[in-house]
Design a protein that fits this description.
The complex is a heterodimer of chains A (405) and B (137). In chain A, 39% of the residues lie in helices and 13% in strands. By secondary structure, chain A is α/β, with parallel strands linked by helices. In chain B, strands 1-2-3 form a three-stranded antiparallel sheet. The chains are: A alpha/beta (405), B alpha+beta (137).
Chain lengths: 405, 137
């Protein structure tokens, strides 16, 4: 039995796994202690839960427990990593390198650092969404202190060659931060093998609770130091003050343990569903384009442009399916996704894109329904599309003089 | 974003979808917008040369639901009007009829532009055609 609406927006957030909720429950009412209370059992219970979760997270990403700093989410982790490194290593240099397709939590943090005297290089990406490593090598100067490159992209699912990027950074004595929000818990991520010095991730993208995230901060080879951005009681080894969100952290830990135990089968399952959706759409519709490489891609991501159909009108037609569009026809500027623009796909294709994010609870029946519905609505909208008509008449749309508005 | 019932109705049951013969001297075609801006409207009118009344109107639109609804509504408003009356149609009428929110007002502006472009095209054709009958006499 299908239940509507169907949720296929698992890059935005994931539903909480009921097992995670169970793990959190005791820490709201019964064990409410402050993990920093050292003098009584209430505090000890809370601390025990936090340390268990810390181990679970560390185990998932190949770190040690002491290297996990709890935050409020990946946005805070990104802010702490970039601002904390920029401040701590200001004597060594003021140059950072990132990419045009990063999340706003990284890009806007970089923008702020620029106002405070840092220099930031925003590397372009190739048409397939991946970085050109030679460009990265060339961008590193003796002033460079940090490279921040996302692990898996939140819109197009492309997986950057983090291991190679880390090796380049290592060689040049530069720290590597990665925003691994979409990757951790979904694909194998190992901070040692991948040469990662700092890594942001969050609970709610891996079937855990919202409002809790983590920053991995390497303690050995090299030992990474950060200037705290939140002053207070000196929690989290002085890197992030603030009373710990014990139930959230307990849930985050449980989510990590489940992800680790079930990753292999879950990856295979997501991939099979993703390919089913893609094959069904490609079999029935002409002029559909996949955004981002299919070769190095999160198994649960599909981002497709349906040429000559505008994304928002497509969303309206498939309103019993929750997905996201790269088109934002809600502002005066009508700016489409900057990530898709960075691929050089052209604004028209960016306006025509839909992001599907498959999750742990997505069923095959839901994928079948989605494929059929998308195909039906795209066909209907193409009947309505003057662009599709013009192309079928043999008109080259790039030669038409449009009245931009 | 929540759409008004009228936008939903036009989106689900668009009126007057299709194309008229561009080469017909009685047909005026307006093509406005740009693909990279996320909306393109093609609006066509067919005018009775004797009465100056718009007897048929068709549209095709690439754009969001509000853009589709605006152009669908525009074709309804055009039918039965004289060309002069059609020139008086204002985007605000479309905004009010469809209850468009502020962020979607540009869709109604584009529909008004499409109406004006179609009428201009028709008039330009009519002007060019004036000498034509004389030559054949």
């Amino acid at each position: 039995m299908l239940k509507f609406p169907i949720y296929l927006d698992n890059h935005a957030t994931t539903p909480m796994d009921p097992r995670v909720f169970e793990a959190m429950k005791p820490y709201f009412v019964e064990h409410f202690g402050n993990a920093a209370s050292r003098n009584h059992a209430f505090g000890w219970e809370a601390e025990e839960a936090v340390e268990k979760a810390r181990k679970q997270l560390a185990s998932l990403v190949g770190a040690t427990a002491k290297e996990i700093v709890f935050t409020s989410g990946a946005t805070e982790s990104n802010n702490l990593a970039l601002k904390g490194v920029a401040e701590m290593y200001a004597q060594r240099g003021n140059h950072l390198i990132t990419a045009a397709t990063e999340h706003k939590a990284v890009l806007d943090t970089c923008k702020r650092l620029e106002k405070h005297g840092c220099q930031v290089t925003y590397l372009p990406v190739r048409a397939d969404g991946l970085l050109d490593l030679d460009q990265l090598r060339d961008a590193i100067t003796d002033k460079t202190i940090l490279v921040s490159i996302m692990y898996g992209n939140n819109e197009i699912g492309t997986i950057q060659p983090i291991r190679e990027i880390g090796a380049i950074c290592r060689e040049r004595g530069v720290l590597l931060h990665t925003d691994a929000t979409q990757a951790v818990g979904k694909i194998p991520v190992n901070v040692l093998a991948d040469n990662i010095d700092l890594m942001s991730f969050t609970g709610h993208k891996m079937y855990g609770p919202k409002g809790v995230g983590a920053l991995y901060v390497r303690r050995k080879n090299p030992r990474v130091q950060l200037t705290a951005q939140m002053d207070g009681g000196g929690h989290e080894r002085g890197m992030r003050s603030g009373t710990l969100n014990v139930p959230g952290i307990a849930g985050f830990g449980e989510a990590a343990a489940i992800a680790q135990a079930e990753m292999e089968q879950e990856m295979a399952r997501s991939l099979a569903l993703r390919e089913k959706l893609r094959n069904a759409i490609e079999a029935e519709l002409d002029e559909v384009y996949i955004n981002g490489t299919m070769e190095h891609r999160l198994p649960h991501n599909l981002n497709i442009s349906f040429a000559y159909v505008e994304g928002e009108s497509l969303l309206m037609g498939i309103n019993d399916i929750a997905v996201s569009s790269g088109s934002a026809c809600t502002s005066a500027t009508l700016e489409p996704s900057y990530v898709l623009k960075a691929l050089g796909a052209g604004d028209d294709l960016a306006h025509s894109s839909i992001r599907f994010g498959i999750g742990r609870f997505t069923t095959e029946e839901e994928i079948d329904y989605t494929a059929a519905k998308v195909i039906d609505v795209v066909k209907k909208l193409r009947e309505l599309s003057p662009l599709y008509e013009m192309v079928k008449e043999g008109i080259d749309l790039s030669k038409v003089e449009w009245t931009a508005h | 974003m929540a759409y008004s019932d009228k936008v939903l109705d036009h989106y689900n049951n668009p009126r007057n979808v299709g194309s008229l013969d561009k080469k017909d001297p009685a047909v005026g075609t307006g093509l406005v917008g740009a693909p990279e801006c996320g909306d393109v409207m093609k609006l066509q009118i067919k005018v009775n040369p004797a009465t100056g009344i718009i007897e048929d109107a068709k549209f095709k639109t690439f754009g969001c639901g509000s853009a589709i609804a605006s152009s669908s509504l525009a074709t309804e408003m055009l039918k039965g009007k004289t060309v002069e009356e059609a020139m008086e149609i204002k985007n605000t009428e479309i905004v009010n009829e469809l209850s468009l929110p502020p962020v979607k007002i540009h869709c109604s502006v584009l529909a008004e532009d499409a109406i004006k472009a179609a009428i201009q095209d028709y008039k330009a054709k009519a002007d060019n055609n004036v000498p034509a009958p004389a030559q054949t006499v």
